[in-house]
Model the fold of this input.
Amino acid sequence: MPKIGILAYGSLIEDPGGELSPYIVKKIPNVATPFNIEFARKSRKRGDGPTVIPVKNGGSSVKAYILELNDNIDIEKAKDLLWRRETGDKDSNSHYALPKNQTVNHVIIESISDYPDFDHILYTNIGSNIDNLDPVNLAKLAIDSAKSSAGEKGEDGINYLLSVKRQGILTPLMPDYEKEILKQTDTESLEEAISKIRKEVEHNKTLQLTGGS
Done:
């Protein structure tokens, strides 16, 4: 079997998912992405919170991980596992196929075939759907996502930003993006921002239930 790895540069590092996780035998850190990434996509799963994707303009190469897969998995199964994880498809009978008419919402599985010590390095590519890539707009999207049901589950844009920071990933927009979240929420840390937002959401729910009394 060929030696296969997955290039992880976002939430995939901390949360590869229940189906993919058993096939990961090693996490190799400090791997530079061969493309630039930036917070250029709002994720429906994350309440439209910003997430990082490969970009052609702007962004930067970042430190990522390679998730090395065990020797019993072939390239097609690896693509299926990665695609199902990225799309949230929990049906093991669903298989990845390259879309004929690609849109910005299609998850595309790309492959790097010339990486040292690996036959294939897979990664996901999906289009940008944020028109205004500036810290003020990104912060508003993240804050709104934290107010949504995604925030209730800890899957919002601010929690995502915290996860990316824990992995040592840094994009050009990140510092000002984080500062703008703190400014708009009048807080001193992202953790405090999340706590404040969620408390406000719960308070408003209580007022609605009690008729504001």
User: Anything to note?
Assistant: The chain has six helices and seven strands. The mean pLDDT is 94.
